[in-house]
Every structure is written in C-alpha cells, then in structure tokens.
Amino acid sequence: MALIELKDINKTYNNGQPLHVLKGINLSIERGEFVSIMGASGSGKSTLLNILGILDNYDTGTYHLDGKLIKDLTEKQAADYRNRMIGFVFQSFNLISFKTALENVELPLYYQGVPRRKRQEMAMEYLEKMGLTPWATHFPNEMSGGQKQRVAIARALITKPQIILADEPTGALDSKTSVEVMQLLKQLNQQDGITIIVVTHEGGVANETDKIIHIKDGIIGEIEENTRHTAWGGTIIK
Amino acid sequence: MRELFHEIASSIRQNKLRTALTGFAVSWGIFLLIALLGAGNGLMNSFSGNMEQYVSQTVTVSGWRTSKPYAGYKENRNIQLDQRDLNYTEGPEWEGVIGNVSVATSSQSVKLTLEGRNVNGWMRGVMPDFQETEKLQMSAGRFLNVDDIKGRRKVIVVSRSQAKELSPRNPEALIGQWISAGSVAFRVVGIYHTDEQDFRQTCPIPYSTYKGIYDHTDKIEDISFTVNGPSTLKEHQDFEDSYTGALKRMHDIAPDDRRGIWVRNGYTDNLEMSNASRILSLAMWILGLLTLVSGIVGVSNIMLITVKERTHEFGIRKAIGAKPHNILSLIIAESVTITAIFGYVGMFLGMIACEVLDKTVGQRGVNIGFEEIRMLVNPSVGLDVALEATLLLIVAGTLAGIIPAWKAAKVKPIEALRAE
Ligand SMILES: Nc1ncnc2c1ncn2[C@@H]1O[C@H](COP(=O)(O)OP(=O)(O)O)[C@@H](O)[C@H]1O
Ligand SMILES: [Mg+2]
Fold it and tell me: What ipTM score was computed for the predicted complex, to two decimals?
C-alpha cells in the first residue's frame, strides 16, 4: 500500500450554503515522492491538504496513512499523528510571534516531552542546517519572509517526519526566495527521502516537483510525470 | 512542570496589558476581602472589648420610679429595694436558679490620690460576693472579705490600670498603702485585672463602710445575682418576668408597669451581643466573598478574551502536535499563576491597609457620652485566614480558567488556524 491512499474522498462545507468542495478524490502517493497539487484558486487544494494533514475531517471515502485508516480519530490521536508523521509549512509561516526562532523550532519536541536541553540542541542543529544560526534568538518580526519560511521548515523537520505538507509555501515570497525554498525542499526529498507534497497555483513552483497533480472542480484531473522539470519552461516567474 | 512554567512566563511576557488587567482585578478583590475582614474583626474586637466591662454574667435589679398609679398610690412613686427583696431573692423560691447574691450601693465618682498622683474612679460599697458576680480576677492582693464588712474597715480594691497611674514603677507596691479618696483615706488590699486602660473603673469598698461614711440609710440600692438554668433569650425573659412580678407585688407596683423595678440582665445582653457579632461577621464574609466572586468573573472574562485573541496561536500549536490537554493545562496554569501572584500582592496590601487602619482610626477614641471608646481594636486577619484566602485564590484561578481553557481546547485545529 502506498504511503497515502485516498479513495472517493468527499467533503462539503456546511456553513450557510452547502458547498461540495471535494467530489470523490482518488489518489495515492508513494513514499519518497515529491509532488505538487495544482489548481485554480478555490479548486479545493487547501481542503485536500488539510485532510491529508488530519487538520480537518472528510465526509465520505477512506484515507489510509501509512496503512492506517484515518477516520474518527480522537483529537489526542490526531495530534499524535501530526506531531510524529507530518511536518507543516504554511504560506503565512504560522510562527508564534512571541517566541524566538529557536523556541518556535523546538516547540514540536516540547509536545513530545523531550527535555529542554536536548530540544534546544536539536533546534540549534536544524537552524544551522537552514543557515539561520545567527537568528536563533530573534523574533519572527525581525526576520525576512525567506528566513521565516526557513524557520518554519526547520520546525517541520525537527520531529523527523515522513511527510511534509506545504500549502503555497512560496505564496508570500519573491521569486528569488521562492527558488531557494523550492531548492531546499527538493534537497530534503533527495537527501533525506522525505515525502513532500506542495500545494500551489503557480506553474513555476509545480515545475520544481517530480509529479504534478491537477485538481479541478473537486476532482483529480491529469497527473503529469515531471522528472525532467520541463512542464513550465523551468522557471519561477512572479 | 518547569517546562509549563517557561511556557507561561513567555506568554505572560508577551501579553503584558492583559496580564496587568487580570492581575488588577484579582489584587483588588483580595485586597478588599482582607481589608473588609480586618476592619470587621477590629469592629468586633472593639465591640466585645467595650462591652465586656459592662456586661457581666449577672442580673442586677434596683428600684425605679413607677409610671402607673396602682393600689391607691400615684404614679411617679420612688421605689426603694429593702431587706424583704433580698430575703425573697435568697429565699427557697429560686433555690438552684439564683446563685450568688450580693448587694451593692450605687457608685459615686471619686478621685484617688497618692503622693500628688491621682486617678478617677467609681467608688462603690459592695459585699464579698461582688467579686463572683462581676467576675473580677485579682492580679495582686485579695478582694474584700467578711471581716472587712463586719469591721467596717476602710479598705479599697482598685483596678490594675488605676494602680499603674498611682504607682507607675511598681503597681503591686500599692498594696498596704493608704490612698485618699476625697477627704477619706483607704488602705489598698487588692488589685484586680483589667484589659481596658483609660476608662473610669469601679473601686469596691466594703458595703458597711460605704453606708457608714456616705449613706446613712439601711436601704438597699442594688441586688446582683448569678443565674443558672435559663439559657435562651425566651427562658431569660420568662425568668425576669416571674422574678420582677414578685417584687412588684411586694411593692404594690402595677403588674403591667414597665417601670418600678429596673433590671439589667447581663445574660441576655451577652446573647444579643453575640448574635449581633455573628451577623456582623457573616455580613463581612458575604461581602468579602462577593468581591472575590466578582474577581473570579473578571479574571474569567479577561481569560476568555485572551483565549479568543490567541486562537490562531493555539491552532499553530495543535498543528504541530499539541493535544487538547496541553492547551487546557497551559491556560489553567496561566490563570492560576496570575491569580496567585497578584492575589498575593493584594493580600499583602490588604494587610498593610489593616496596619494603617490600626495606626490611625484604631488609635482614635470616640466619645459616646460618658466615656471614650476605641472604634477599632486590633483590626487584622489571622494568618490562617490569609492562607485560606490564598488557597481560595488558587481554586478561584482554576475556576476562572476552566471555561476559557475548555473553549480553547475544544476548537478544531483547522478552525483555530483560520482565525486571525
Ligand atoms: N471553512 C470553510 N467554510 C466554507 N467554505 C470554505 C471553507 N474553506 C474553504 N471554503 C471554500 O471551499 C472552496 C475550496 O477552498 P480551498 O480548499 O481553500 O481552495 P484552494 O486552496 O484551492 O484555493 C472555496 O470555494 C472556499 O471558499
Ligand atoms: Mg488554498
């Protein structure tokens, strides 16, 4: 079985006018893949990614993560999966503003009960990997967008997750920084074998990934193999 | 635990205004609680302290002008107690109910003098039983005895504070010395204990001596006695009615005349007073607790607002693995920490306020006509109350945190992340 297996996933938002967003998603993603999910704004990409990350639930269908059915989990179980299996990278970084870069990065380990000393050591190590050692004691509002996103990536990596879910990770960055962030993700995929799923509506960003999954009107459309990265002429243009 | 504290410290540092507001609500609440309880205690101390010296566990009766014509007599007749009344009081009818009986003359103001020092007092001719009925504790020497009465001795018993006025260095040395009371000299035989300081106090001399010098009649002014049996207010009322009824018959006073026989019942006065102070202390507690409850509601409200403001942050925490109980304990611990720290500050200030009250209002006397009393005596709360209040605060902090914490823990991660 693939690392991620979705069968006939349906999701309807019910505040006010019911909105059927995902209309039977079938998808499987293997361990070690580097894929992007592409589609127009409002096509349901974030909804799908949130279900994958167990941040939200789905109505019907089945979702198997690493062979386990993800359905009707308690909040505690869900939190545990998110903490150990999945790392999140968001468009708006989602760093805690009153915590330093170091404190932000070590927070997932706090929820694993790792002792403080060990946590700080590891957080420093990951910040170093991201080239952020001098910024360890800085607060998010003292850093550039690219730096903040690298702090967020360090935080996603610190629990050694199997999957990284990134929702428009370059959405708030300029093209140069966007390229750097995509290079970083590619490197993590190639060197550490982490499965990475990037949601984007930018062709240039999708082109950096090995497989492009198109989503349209709540259904999976074309799935493009893109190992030669030629889908969009190979550049990120903003 | 240390981890949690670190978490709290950083979020408190970040939310200074919020923390200050919450803290103020709590400090104020506990400050008022302590100050109120302290002032209440002071009021009660002064209450019972001031009363104690007048209200002894005794019944005292004396004659009074009648207010109604009866049996051929006109109203406004002067009633004077005599030997018959004393015989009746000591007689078989009240055997086992009326205990020690003593007679006393009325008091007269006197100035005691020794070697240029003087002090005022109320001189009174009494029988030896007076010590028992008035519950006088001797601090030196002895009380008047039967020989003093028989021999019409010129001896006197003074209060400890009077003794201090006359012989400041060594009050005990006063025993055996002759002091003058007006134009007559008396030898001091005893000093009785008293807590009060600057009031005119009774100086007992033998009943017979008083009669011989100041009042040459064989009339009886006052009969005092202790009572066993009646305990409730109603029982005392019944006893009084039945006892004074008999005296009224002997003196031809109308049975329904509210005057004629004057009764001062120390037992009922005490009962009424302890009722009053029970109500006062209850009122203080209710007031204090209401203040505290409003403090809790205040903290709870502010925590609710905080939780709402921090929803997005909790969403982030949940996304990276915080379980509901992590969020729950974070908020409750924060609430308790803030409540406890600021509660402690409030308590400290409250105790200072009690001290200030003691040093200002507490030292000032209030003139109530015939003498000065202190409004507040030792206004303070015990350490036990302060500790109880601290415990209460921690419970309060938990209570205040529970609803907001539960709200925060319950929000779904995706909804929390969407919040801005
Ligand atoms: N919580 C929600 N309640 C109601 N409608 C929602 C909610 N979240 C998203 N939607 C709607 O669902 C559709 C898909 O949203 P989303 O998955 O965010 O799209 P994308 O990420 O592809 O832009 C949009 O029309 C959006 O307005
Ligand atoms: Mg989206």
Answer: 0.94
